[in-house]
Amino acid sequence: MANRHTIILMQTSQNRATRTFMDYNSISQAMDGICGLYERKLKDLNPTNGNITYDIADLYNFIDGLTDLSALVYDHSIQAFLPYDRQWIKQRIFQHLKKLASR
Length: 103
Hints:
Keywords: Cell cycle
Shape: globular
Protein name: Enhancer of rudimentary homolog
Helix content: 40-55%
Function: May have a role in the cell cycle.
Number of helices: 3
InterPro entries: EHR_sf, ERH
Order of helices and strands: EEHHEEH
Pfam families: ER (PF01133)
């Protein structure tokens, strides 16, 4: 699963103008990117708090609050991108954070 080009497709509100994408070299980097988005939002909401913490349920609520979130992951064996939904992203983020915590 390492080094699989991953594109995150996201829409933050009902306004179609909020559609965007983020491009990463791996699934792991993409999961870091999604966590980073949430962390930046927390910092924006709490500018005077230098030490912000959250748990996986908070992150899942953020993900569920997005109008749309999906991933396209390149599969070298078929030379094409495979689509994955919000639930898959949540499972991947959990696995990713669990691996980071065990280091």
